[in-house]
Amino acid sequence: MERTTISIPNELLEQLRKMAAEKRTSMAFLIREALEEKAKAYRPPPRSLGMGSSGHTDTARRASDERPEPRPWR
Fold first, then answer.
1. pTM
2. Nearest to 6 by CA among 46, 37, 34
3. Interior CA angle at 18 toward 29 and 31, to 5°?
């Protein structure tokens, strides 16, 4: 395990101290637990090149309305 230093607002630090005392655990444990939950919930954004994004929300409807008449096959 590696050590690190973080800056925390005084109000949050006091709240962490109280929580740790109530749960009879260390502040470090509470912080690790919170960071693990945050890391598990992380979902990277989908990789996209932006292709196909027309900026319109009605593209499918417009495509069917604007479709040209088919040419005769003969």
1. 0.57
2. 34
3. 25
